[in-house]
Amino acid sequence: MAGPPSAQRRGGTRDAETLFISDLHLSAEAPALTALFLGFLERRAAGARALYILGDLFDAWIGDDDSSHGDIEAALAKLTGTGTRCLLMHGNRDFLLGRRFARRTGCTLLRDPTRIALLGEPTLLMHGDLLCTDDVAYQRFRRKVRNPLLQWLFLRRPLARRRQAAADYRRKSAAAMADKPAEIMDVNADAVLERLLRHRVRRLIHGHTHRPADHCIDMDGHTAHRHVLADWRPERGEVLVAADGRLTREPVLP
Ligand code: LP5
Ligand code: MN
Fold first, then answer.
1. How far does residue 55's CA lie from ligand 2's centre (Å)?
2. Contact (Cβ atoms closer than 8 angstroms) between residue 95 and residue 63
3. Which residues form ligand 1's pocket by a CB distance below 6 Å?
């Protein structure tokens, strides 16, 4: 049965749509970006079957006791409260998003990687940083900050000190990146192939690299697809829409 006119799109209905976004990097310092995301939730995501956020929704998440993103949490709670599932994967900047955030917003936290059925086909979802195996310094940093004991100690520190530490990590990371060749910050082809084979999928969706594209990969005579999500800017975001048997990229504009 067709939904109300506002829920109809391209001959289908929004409740048959699954949406994918990543790398928004929301922060209090970028109010126009937050406004773009809030508008997207209200005008585009509302009514969809599911919204997958594949990491780095926030520029930095320093703990669920930080109350400075109340407007974003309220908007997510409104979305999930009206029946759209919101599934959230950690990124390399917001891996401290925890159960309290999930409870407040109605979002479900996803493991990286997660395998789902999409348009009738098994599909692997990742943030993408695990695929960047040539970036050895990053992978070392990742192992350190994903250590539960280190995270527990970090979360015991006062909010102001955590905020300072996060800004320090961001600064050091930017300096380190300026010295890295661009190729090592992209995915490693063997790491991609290994994941596709291990999880027995021919479709992978991920973000992180900020190199949006749809890649075909030859896999034992079959074609696999790797869809890379775009990062968001205040003037333009992007959403990958799965509906009517196909995947389509749509701009998100103010
Ligand atoms: O994020 P992006 O795309 O700009 O860069 C990433 C990699 N950088 C990071 C670091 C994050 O940006 C900052 C994280 C903030 C988190 C806040 C919470 C802190 C919680 C701490 C809990 C214990 O992920 C970058 C990659 C790039 O992607 C492309 O893939 O290259 O990696 C780096 O730049 C890492 C550097 O190479 C090495 C690390 C420098 C910082 C050293 C600090 C020492 C930390 C010791 C451990 C506690
Ligand atoms: Mn990332």
1. 7
2. no
3. 60, 62, 92-93, 96, 129, 132, 135, 137-138, 141, 144-145, 150-151, 154, 166, 169-170, 172-173, 176-177, 180, 185
